[in-house]
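User: Design a sequence. Structure:
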């Protein structure tokens, strides 16, 4: 297992590749303290080990030195990340090449003027516009490849996913606004799945997707403004303060919740009605369907809640059953903040290379819920949605079928397995 020191400046997406790989491999990789870009990497001692002084740079505990970010990530990774066989490894290298040759140039030309890394002159403007088209071409390739795949190579996360995602990181943070990224639902699903993995979060923290395209130099200006504000705060803190009562210390969970940004729940503006979603979920979890389904109809409030049928649009692209299940699980994970006022039973019918995905959803309100929040819009366009009449016998039969996990789909495929969103 590789262990050593990584030399880099903060928030370097290239260095993130190695640090994420180290998280998966449980490798002891430490970031060099007191690193000053332009000084540390230009010192004689540094240049003796790393020609040119480029970062990220890595020195193992036994004296091995590397500079290229992808090489470092490969070195500190484990066998799973590198590929379980020669063909998988070749595919991983193929996608790393794609990330460096197609994704990275477009991303840099588009994002670097915004970050103030390159000047926003006439030549940069021309490259700026061309980068948008080049990025669209790269995302189109990725979107097609990920249509029926959870990850780029094989069944688990590999270096291919880590490298491509890190090369896309700044684009997703600063320029890929909802309108631009809307056609690339498969890429959005894949990227969001990755950045929510514990190993990614340990390195990247919470990644906020772009809501509005930043303009050239705006991020730099924002950073300067924050520094001025921080200096003002420092001066205030230096002044004597009146003693205040000690605050009750929070445990780790409470502290995390307190620091979490409070986003408005779209359901809060809707009438609560009489249907208690939590009570139904407890009943469904603890009782047989013979009791929980009648309980649902007894308590359901059709004036303030609605029932929807969702069917995956691309069944011909579904391959392995486990991959189809990953699609469902991934969607559930990305809708986590919707759980409080929603419930779903999503079923997979059929077998490998002949399956469909469909489900029954229940939520507060009468309209399709997903457009109400940008956080909920990643997967829903891959499904056809139909609002059901809660009073019809056909709806009651569908609810019983999906809540009980039985029967066949429209094409006669038998129920294979299901997942509950609650």
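Assistant: Done.
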């Amino acid at each position: 297992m590789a262990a050593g020191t990584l030399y880099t400046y903060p928030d370097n997406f290239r260095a993130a590749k190695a640090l994420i790989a180290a998280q998966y491999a449980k490798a002891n990789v430490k970031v060099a303290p007191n690193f000053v870009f332009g000084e540390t990497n230009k010192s004689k001692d540094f240049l003796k080990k790393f020609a040119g002084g480029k970062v990220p740079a890595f020195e193992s505990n036994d004296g091995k030195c590397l500079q290229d970010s992808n090489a470092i990530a490969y070195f500190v990774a484990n066998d799973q990340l590198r590929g379980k066989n020669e063909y998988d490894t070749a595919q991983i290298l193929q996608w790393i090449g794609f990330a460096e040759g197609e994704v990275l140039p477009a991303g840099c030309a588009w994002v670097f003027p915004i970050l103030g890394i390159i000047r926003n002159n006439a030549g940069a403007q021309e490259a700026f516009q061309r980068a948008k088209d080049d990025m669209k071409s790269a995302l189109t390739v990725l979107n097609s490849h990920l249509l029926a795949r959870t990850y780029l190579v094989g069944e688990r996360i590999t270096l291919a996913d880590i490298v491509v995602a890190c090369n896309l990181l700044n684009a997703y943070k600063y320029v890929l606004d909802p309108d631009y990224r809307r056609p690339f639902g498969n890429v959005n699903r894949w990227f969001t799945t990755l950045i929510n993995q514990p190993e990614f979060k340990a390195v990247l923290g919470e990644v906020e997707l772009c809501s509005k395209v930043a303009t050239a130099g705006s991020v730099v200006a924002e950073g300067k403004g924050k520094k001025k504000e921080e200096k003002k705060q420092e001066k205030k803190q230096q002044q004597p303060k009146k003693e205040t009562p000690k605050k009750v210390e929070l445990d780790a969970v409470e502290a995390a919740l307190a620091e979490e940004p409070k986003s408005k729940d779209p359901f809060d503006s809707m009438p609560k009605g009489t249907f208690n979603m939590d009570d139904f979920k407890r009943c469904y979890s603890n009782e047989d369907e013979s009791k929980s389904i009648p309980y649902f109809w007894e308590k359901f409030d059709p004036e303030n809640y609605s029932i929807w049928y969702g069917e995956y649009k691309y069944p011909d692209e579904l391959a392995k059953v486990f991959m189809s299940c990953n699609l469902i699980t991934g969607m559930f994970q990305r809708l986590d903040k919707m759980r409080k006022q929603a419930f779903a039973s999503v079923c997979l019918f059929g077998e490998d290379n002949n399956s469909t995905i469909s489900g029954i959803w229940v939520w507060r309100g009468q309209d399709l819920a997903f457009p109400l929040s940008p956080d909920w819009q990643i997967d829903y366009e891959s499904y056809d949605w139909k609002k059901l009449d809660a009073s019809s016998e056909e709806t009651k039969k569908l609810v019983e079928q999906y809540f009980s996990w039985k029967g066949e789909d429209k094409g006669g495929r038998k129920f294979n397995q299901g997942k509950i969103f609650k």
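The longest strand covers residues 354-364. The chain has 16 helices and nine strands.
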